Amino acid sequence: MRRTIFDLDVLRTFSTGIELGNFAKAAERLGRSTSAVSAQLKKLEEQAGTPIFRKAGRGLALTDAGETMLGYARRLLELNDEAAAAVHSVELEGWVRLGLQEDFGETLLPEVLGRFARAHPKVRIEARVVRNAELLDRVTSGKLDLALAWSDGTLTAHCEAIGEVPMCWIGPAEGQPVWHAASGEPMPLASLEAPCLLRNAATRALDEAGISWRLAFVSPSLGGLWAATAAGLGFTIRTPVGLPAKVRTLQPEAVGLPGLPKLGLVLHRAEAELQPAAARLAELVQQSVRGALPASDGLISH
Questions:
Q1: Residues 116 and 108: beta-carbon distance below 8 Å
Q2: CA-CA-CA-CA torsion for 60, 63, 68, 71, nearest 10 degrees?
Q3: What CA–CA distance (Å, rounded) separates 9 from 114?
Q4: What does the buried/exposed string (b/e) look like for 249-264 if buried means 16 or more CB atoms within 10 Å of the residue's CB?
Q5: How far apart are CA 68 and CA 71, in angstroms?
Q6: What residue stretches are annotated with the HTH lysR-type domain (predicted)?
Q7: How many CB atoms lie within 10 A of CB 19?
Q8: Pairwise pLDDT comparison (243 vs 21), residue with the higher score
Q9: What is the pLDDT of residues 224-282, one digit of tens each?
Q10: Per-residue confidence at 179, pLDDT binned at 50, 70, 90?
């Protein structure tokens, strides 16, 4: 049986197109013509020996094989880029200060730090997992080199939008929902301490829908919020990022709650031109986050 060896350039085009939701944009980013991109995608399907796309309305969606291919493509590209960085930047040294939301502390942070440390063992990293307001304050005052934060519309001097994540109502993983609109009772809300961007979004959505609510639990930490939500003290609002197994996302219509908007995610930099170590870490953060974010609607424009 002939061994299949996938072309990394083809896999990068494939992964970039999915990330951007548009292969024309992928062609522009990668400096290729749209016809060249089409030829690469055709080559990928030929190498895979099975369709990786299916028609979905006016666009394309991934088949089950395509979803599998995407996961492996991202892993292969990450390993390739990590190897290239290790070989070409073996003497990279310095100190990088990274800040990020609690939501990413247990998911994104270990992956990014592991990849970075393997490639650049001489670089010292200081990571701070704090709330949004503190992240913005620290990066603007120069106490952090990089900060990954939810977007509240505040723009720092050097920032880049990475993507959008759906906000969701969250309840306990087991048992019946703790509340339903038909009960006529105020909705019990579990929340982080103010100021909290997602707490504001929750109360605004409830107020606009004419649904009364009460603060049933307030926590200074995300761990406390998960514990209260899992215990059934109330519903909370977060994103699908970093959800523990003891809680789950809710379908709003099932309990009479309003739908929620998406939440932007922004990478803030202290300086326009980062030092090499910080620039490399910023690149890894962007790659990992974009790979973890859900597609907006599962459709890809060819």
A1: no
A2: 20
A3: 25
A4: ebebeebebbebeebe
A5: 5
A6: 6-63
A7: 20
A8: 243
A9: 999 999 999 999 999 998 899 999 999 999 999 999 999 999 999 999 999 888 998 99
A10: very high
Q: What contacts 24+ positions apart, CB below 8 Å, involve 224-227?
A: 225/190, 225/191, 225/192
Q: Which of 289, 269, 267, 282 is nearest to 123 (CA)?
A: 282
Q: Which tokens sit at 104? A: 């990413």
- Any bridge partners for residue 69, and if so which? none
Side-chain half-sphere CA neighbours of 174 within 13 A: 3
Check pLDDT > 50 for residue 8.
Answer: yes
List of residues 6+ apart from 69 with CB closer than 8 A: 14, 44, 48, 52, 62
Question: Residues with Cβ < 8 Å from 68, sequence gap 6 or more?
Answer: none
Contact present, 142 and 133 (Cβ < 8 Å):
no
Query: Residues 102, 113, 117, CA angle at the centre, nearest 5°?
Result: 165
Single pTM value for the model = 0.71
Both tokens assigned to 27:
């062609």
H or E segment and range at residue 165: strand 159-166
Residue that the structure tokens 């522009």 belong to: 28
Distance CA 248, CA 189 (A): 15
Helix, strand, or coil (residue 233): coil
